[in-house]
Design brief:
This protein is mainly alpha-helical and 89 residues long. 78% of the residues lie in helices and 0% in strands. The protein has one domain. Helix 2 packs antiparallel against helix 3. The protein is flat.
């Protein structure tokens, strides 16, 4: 849990905004480079690389949202269901 004064600190909000925007610009530049370099060679590799870059950006969004809101996720399942799911992975 974050103390209230940390969540409402305007400098911290500006810092998160800056980091998010910079990482978004970097990922978009990497997507442009992959479109120019990888796409003419292999469309399948381009799609995989682009999906990985998009996943990186969305992971950052979800991390920031979860950290900011102090969400705790609890999963309840029977041990056989967990064992069966882990065996399929």
């Amino acid at each position: 849990m974050l103390p209230s004064f940390i969540r409402h600190n305007p400098f911290l909000r500006i810092w998160f905004f800056f980091v998010f925007m910079c990482s978004g610009i970097i990922i978009n530049c990497l997507q442009l480079l992959s479109a120019l370099i990888v796409w003419p060679v292999s469309k399948r590799t381009y799609r995989r690389l682009n999906a990985l870059l998009v996943e990186c950006h969305w992971t950052e969004i979800f991390f920031m949202l979860q950290w900011w809101s102090s969400i705790t996720l609890r999963l309840y399942a029977e041990s056989e269901a967990v064992l069966g799911a882990s065996m399929r992975i």
